[in-house]
Amino acid sequence: PKGTDLSKISADKVAEVQISLNNRPRKVWHFKTPLEAVLNVCPHVPASLLNGHIDMRCFCVTMLECFIIK
Questions:
Q1: How many Cβ atoms from other residues are within 10 Å of residue 25's Cβ?
Q2: Are 62 and 69 spatial neighbours (Cβ–Cβ below 8 Å)?
Q3: Do residues 38 and 66 lie in contact, with contact meaning Cβ atoms separated by under 8 Å?
Q4: How far is Cα of residue 24 from the mean position of the Cα atoms in its chain?
Q5: Per residue in 6-61, pLDDT tens?
Q6: Are the C-beta atoms of residues 22 and 29 closer than 8 Å to each other?
């Protein structure tokens, strides 16, 4: 909740919530998860993203390449 002192929450719990939120289907994407929505636009997503270990530099370059190719 708003105002919660995050220093009292373990890193494991924060990671658990992060994974839960990042894998939640969104109405705006026709009830697809963020990853499923990205895969619709760009099927060449780095394997690290599929494993939950995101290298944002690699991901951003890959997404730019997908949009330039289309």
A1: 12
A2: no
A3: no
A4: 10
A5: 889 998 888 888 888 878 888 988 898 877 777 777 776 665 555 555 555 666 66
A6: no
